[in-house]
Design a protein that fits this description.
Oligomer: heterodimer
Largest sheet of chain A: 3 strands, mixed
Mean pLDDT of chain B: 90
Number of helices of chain A: 8
Distance between the termini of chain A: 14 Å
Radius of gyration of chain A: 18 Å
Number of strands of chain B: 5
Strand order of the largest sheet of chain A: 8-1-9
Strand order of the largest sheet of chain B: 1-4
Shape of chain A: globular
Structural class of chain A: alpha+beta
Helix content of chain A: 10-25%
Order of helices and strands of chain B: EHHHHHHHHEHHHHEHEEHH
Bound molecules: iron/sulfur cluster
Number of strands of chain A: 9
Strand content of chain A: 15-25%
Order of helices and strands of chain A: HHEHEEHEEHEEHHEHE
Shape of chain B: globular
Strand content of chain B: under 5%
Chain lengths: 241, 411
């Protein structure tokens, strides 16, 4: 993947801003792994690459995500939450069938954040898009705005909540890119599961670090975003669509 | 110039209390419906993760749009200086406030967390059209209240015009804001177009005036006040013009979409094979909500007041149908994920989402209408909003061979 002009300017200005804001910061520091108590920084942007040539009929990522985050349903498909789902694509002309996982794409220009009246939907400096459950009023405008149907409204009381992923009836939630794991230096649960039990179709990492696995993968082959026409510059990328 | 006289509703009014009791019953039912949905969570409604805005939004957006339209009559009087409309201006302002209240209550009670309303008032994201609208709505109350005060307090009358102009500009902005809630949703084919905002403005004219007509005719009749043909005819043809204008804009909206190949899917869905949405569009919005009222309003049928009330009711129903098609139909149609590929999943990708309104949702919406009407009824009882007479001679000083101006200016 070649850097678009916008990405290039984005990375450039972030780096400049970073240096301006913290004069003592040396660029070599950035290459080092961050510790959990290090502040969230715009010098990183977390991203995910899914190679759908490798992805097939398995559901390991979905199971792992919902397990990790305590996303339990009530056997009511229309109203149960789904943070990540397997989508089957069928080419209208040729009939060729592929499957891919779809979750919050952690857009750089997230429409959900733009429309949220209270600011409950927000993007962290490192690109992870989250919902502040204490401010969300449950207006669901963000769900209207998200082009990927990535968000779910919690339609009823929840049980088995995980401390790191509070879920509240009447609020909206979506994939957090397993922010609690990422902040602890681990990869998201879906990625771990895919690499362990699945088909090793997912790579996670820092899009701004040229030496990260994901950047190298992206630089060495083609990839695309879902709905590239919307220009949202998503953090989740796909190869092989 | 004729000085209109205003009065509260007089007397013991048995009918008044009956009317209030009926409306109160609907309001209570609406409140209980909201409690029920809130307690159980939204899974007991027809809504889902596919259709996130359901029937309450249909009612709420309709009422909010109609509210700004109801103010039109006052604007015509103060902004465009039409004397004939002056005696109607107070009722127009009152109706605007009442309808907006009804709409907002429904909207708030349908939130996932209505108890957090305070968050919506204290945390603002200024990029959000919704946040803007919160300001526009609150401001509307204040602006119209001041405007009413200028009209009703004799010493303030001189300021009626500037207050009226300000209120007029505010309401245009407000409806633009409401329309933009949809117009800015880039993700969905049905909404992402600039025509939506002006279309909402013209719709507000028609819906607001239709409700105004119903309330005016009922209020004048039940309080045994005279409503002459001059005012009636003027309002009738104005309503006709508005309905025709809506039809024009709806046509432009669909033609624009048909011009864009990418939008053929959603257009085919709404216009041809969208099942209930197609029916709602053609039968509800176009035939019953526009064509029949136009025939009534512009033909001899329109001489009958009962027929004009019927036409107004149909315009209201057509308006609700229009909101249903826009809001729910627009969500039901699946969003594309990858061009040229059919998507399917356990999360209803690629299929038309189903939605069946539940009883509590409908009751909540109707409760909002009842609340608006109850506010009007109570206000008419305690404050002088309604002119004593709108007889031809009172309404139009030039009605008969024009005498000297001072003669008609009854003191
Ligand atoms: S994918 Fe949807 S929920 Fe995620 S950042 Fe983008 S708009 Fe927001
Ligand atoms: S549902 Fe919550 S997160 Fe979404 S737009 Fe409304 S307040 Fe923001």
């Amino acid at each position: 993947m070649s850097l678009s002009r916008r990405e290039f300017i984005g990375i450039g200005s972030a780096a400049v801003a970073g240096m301006a804001l913290s004069p003592g910061l040396r660029l070599v520091d950035l290459a080092q792994a961050r510790s959990p108590d290090e502040a969230v920084t715009s010098l990183k942007r977390w991203g995910l690459l899914v190679d759908i040539n490798k992805c097939n009929d398995c559901n390991a990522c979905v199971t792992a995500c919902h397990e990790e985050n305590g996303v339990v349903g009530h056997d009511r498909p229309a109203t149960d939450a789904q943070w990540i789902r397997k989508v089957t694509l069928k080419d209208k002309q040729t009939g060729y069938v592929q499957t891919l996982p779809v979750m919050c794409q952690h857009c750089e220009e997230p429409p959900c954040v733009d429309v949220c009246p209270t600011g409950a939907s927000f993007k962290r400096a490192d690109g992870i898009v989250l919902v502040d459950k204490h401010i969300c009023i449950g207006c669901r405008y963000c769900m209207m705005a998200c082009p990927y149907k990535a968000r779910s409204f919690v339609h009823e009381d929840t049980t088995d909540q995980k401390p790191h992923a509070p879920r509240g009836k009447g609020t909206v939630e979506s994939c957090t890119l397993c922010v609690h794991r990422v902040d602890a230096g681990k990869v998201p649960a879906c990625v771990e599961a895919c690499n362990k039990d699945g088909n090793k179709a997912m790579v996670f990492g820092d899009l701004k670090d040229r030496n990260s696995d994901i950047s190298k993968h992206l630089a060495s082959g083609s990839s695309t975003q879902l709905r590239p026409d919307l220009n949202l510059n998503t953090g989740v990328r796909y190869r092989g669509i | 110039m004729a000085h209109a006289h205003f009065n509260t509703m007089e007397g013991r009014g048995f009918g008044f209390y009956i009317l209030l009791a009926i409306l109160g019953g609907f309001i209570l039912a609406g409140g209980l419906a909201a409690l029920y949905m809130e307690h159980n969570g939204h899974w007991v409604t027809g809504m889902s993760n596919q259709i996130v805005w359901g029937t309450p939004h249909v009612f709420a957006v309709f009422l909010i749009v109609a509210a700004s339209g109801a103010l039109n009559v006052a604007s015509i009087a103060s902004v465009f200086g039409r004397q004939l409309y002056k005696p109607l201006a107070r009722l127009s302002g009152l109706l605007a406030i009442a309808l907006l209240t009804g709409g907002l209550i429904v909207l708030v009670l349908d939130l996932g967390r209505p108890d957090r309303l305070i968050e919506a008032m204290t945390y603002y994201n200024f990029k959000s059209i919704f946040a803007w609208n919160i300001f526009l709505y609150i401001g509307f109350f204040a602006v119209v209240a001041v405007y009413l005060w200028m009209m009703m307090e004799r010493r303030m009358n001189d300021y009626t015009k500037p207050a009226g102009i300000f209120a007029f500009l505010w309401r245009l902005t407000l409806t633009t804001g409401t329309g933009s809630i949809f117009g800015f949703l880039v993700a969905r084919d049905a909404y992402d177009t600039a025509v939506i905002a002006p279309m909402f403005i013209i719709m507000s004219f028609a819906y607001g005036l239709a409700i105004f007509m119903i309330v005016l005719l009922a209020a004048m009749r039940w309080t045994e006040r005279e409503l002459g043909n001059v005012v009636f005819e003027r309002l009738r043809s104005l309503l006709g013009v508005f309905v025709a204008a809506v039809l024009y804009f709806v046509t432009i909206y669909h033609l624009t979409n048909l011009y864009i190949t990418q939008r053929h899917g959603i257009e085919g869905f709404i216009l041809l094979h969208g099942g209930v949405y197609t029916k709602m569009f053609w039968i509800g919005q176009i035939f019953l909500g526009s064509v029949v009222p136009l025939i009534i309003l512009f033909s001899r049928l329109g001489k009958s007041r009962a027929m004009v009330v019927l036409a107004s009711l149909l315009i209201v129903l057509g308006g609700l149908a229009q909101m249903y098609v826009t809001i729910i139909g627009g969500q039901a149609y699946p969003m594309p994920l990858v061009t040229g590929k059919e998507a399917s999943s356990s999360f209803f990708d690629g299929v038309v989402a189903s939605y069946v309104p539940s009883l509590p949702e409908a009751i909540l919406g109707i409760g909002g209408i009842a609340l608006a009407l109850a506010m009007v009824v109570v206000a008419l009882k305690i404050l002088p909003f309604l002119p004593n007479s709108l007889s031809d001679a009172d309404a139009d000083p030039h009605f008969k061979a024009t005498p000297a101006k001072s003669e008609t200016a009854a003191a």
